[in-house]
Amino acid sequence: MKIEYPTPEEQHNSIERIVKYGLPQRSAFAELKEMFRSLGPRVIFYGQGDVMFIAAMAVAFIAYYLVQLAFQPGVGKVAPEYLYSFLFTVSPTMYLLLCLLGFWKEKLSTVYDIKMTCKYNVCHLAVFRMLAFSCANIVVNMLTAGLCCLLHLESDFWRMFMVSACGLFLLSVLLIYSLLFGRGIIPPTVVSAAWVPANLLCNALAKGTYWHFLRVVPLPLHIAVTAALACLYIFSLKWLFLRKKEKVLC
Amino acid sequence: MLTVQNVTKRFGSFTALEDINLEFGKGVYGLLAPNGAGKTTLMKMIVTLLFPTKGRILCDGKEILSMGESYREKIGYLPQEFGYYRNDSPRQYLRYLGALKGLERRAAEVRIDGLLEKVGLADVKDKKMKKFSGGMVQRVGIAQALLGNPEILVLDEPTAGLDPKERARFRNLISEFSKDRTVILSTHIVSDIESVANRIVMLKDHSVYCDTDCSSLCGMMGGKVFECSVPQKDADSFEMSHLVISRREETGQTHFRFAQDGEKGLPPQAKPVQPDLEDVFLYIYRED
């Protein structure tokens, strides 16, 4: 019985199949870690300096506003409902500006096409940046809650921090889903633009329920909701990283 | 081997490409068609910037969309409108793209210096690109496409903005590079394709019109291209009634090169000449 020797192409395909199914697969986060190790922060955040500056200015303005609120003469203690709804609404500001302005900058960049054909393309960079910006925003939220305590606007640090984190992860999840299921950059822009009006609307039309959720609901429930949103966010980021779609950002 | 299998691309109700079937092996493939024929759309699908509405594109038998970064590591792409960061020097820009292409830093430095030397930009490698001419910027674009030592090189109008000397340098670069690789390039400068392409793919009416080598293509026009001189007073009426490829004014006479099917209406002084690729292009796309 004559057994045909496999052709070089058949050999190559067999080896690839063995490697693909035999070796342990790297998770999306291992891939992100490898990407960070290969590229470094300088390449990942290349050209984002002006976007970071705008976001930093926005955060500074919010801090300034809080300080003004605390020291405004002739006004009594700020109503806690107002403070919590303010924190919930503005907590994702830095993340929002960094992500959205970053997306638009990539879309309008003449280098987009070339970057999309690289091994680490615009989508990979966007996912890493979103993860980094959300971590940075958590730190900013913590500092904002601390500032409110320092200015005696409110004393419950952990509730303020949880309310901010909840706002951040809720918007992050909405943003990622708009990228995953929408087409191009308009859906995330619409989601971002609608965040503040939606919160103002809740404040105006359903203030009882809205304030109850922010102010009265027990802290463990807040933590559980925030943790669930955070897990959904992380899972969606992974999905975005692995997703093959024609127009993710543009 | 890159295989385009029954690929159709639609944008809403507009069909850009219909049922394209092509195979690209090693060598240089020239994509020839007028503006709007779908060359850039096809190239964008090959480099995964666009996805086919129907059909698929395979690389060595595997679908390119499922290969992900392993396919992107094999390709080099120069788009029609090459973008760059104006405040970067060529070296900084290529370093950045080299990192995104997954090149190791030291290897990238060596490669960047070599490529800038090859495209004639070694003297200005640290100068900001905002001070560059269009031709110099285009050469940076060619260098970045070659940066990852790709197996498949896709160049969309690579010689736009280059002077004849630069175009000659580019042709030599492509010939040298294509020895063991696939190079797909589109251009309107027919002479660039004529001298370097092993095969020419022509698109017409959103489909493949022909896929053959240059000599066979020119052979299709055998006996259909003529040259003659007419008095200048008759030149305009001659141009109206014939498919004129080129016109040259001489003393008292106008010299025409034209294409014609059959001998009906052929001027008696017309002499048949050996057709070239430009004649083929103008003849095939005469209605467009």
Task: Give a quick set of tags describing it.
heterodimer; A: 250 residues; mainly alpha; 11 helices; 0% strand; elongated; B: 288 residues; alpha/beta; Rossmann fold; 2 domains; six-stranded mixed beta sheet; four-stranded antiparallel beta sheet
Summarize the structure.
The complex is a heterodimer of chains A (250) and B (288). By secondary structure, chain A is mainly α.
- Helicity level of chain A, as a percent range? over 70%
Task: Give the percentage of residues in beta strands of chain A.
Answer: under 5%
- By DSSP (H or I, 4+ residues per run), the number of helices of chain A equals 11
Measured by residues with Cβ under 8 Å of the partner chain's Cβ, the largest interface is: A-B, 24 and 30 residues
Following the backbone from N to C, one meets helices and strands of chain A in this order, namely: HHHHHHHHHHH
Distance between the termini of chain B: 32 Å
**What's the shape of chain A?**
elongated
Succession of helices and strands of chain B: EEEHEEHHEHHHEHEHEEHEHEEEH
- The total count of strands of chain A amounts to 0
If you had to describe this structure to a student in words, what would you say it looks like?
- The complex is a heterodimer of chains A (250) and B (288).
- Chain A is mainly alpha-helical.
- In chain A, 78% of the residues lie in helices and 0% in strands.
- Chain A is elongated and about 95 Å long.
- The mean pLDDT of chain A is 85.
- By secondary structure, chain B is of the alpha/beta class.
- Chain B has two domains: 217 residues, P-loop containing nucleotide triphosphate hydrolases (Rossmann fold, 3-Layer(aba) Sandwich), CATH 3.40.50; 65 residues.
- Chain B has a six-stranded mixed β-sheet with strand order 6-7-8-3-9-10, sandwiched between helices.
- In chain B, helix 4 packs across helix 5 and helix 5 packs across helix 6.
- The radius of gyration of chain B is 22 Å and the shape is globular.
- The mean pLDDT of chain B is 90.
- The chains are: A mainly alpha (250), B alpha/beta (288).
- At the A-B interface, helix 1, helix 2 and helix 6 of A face helix 4 of B.
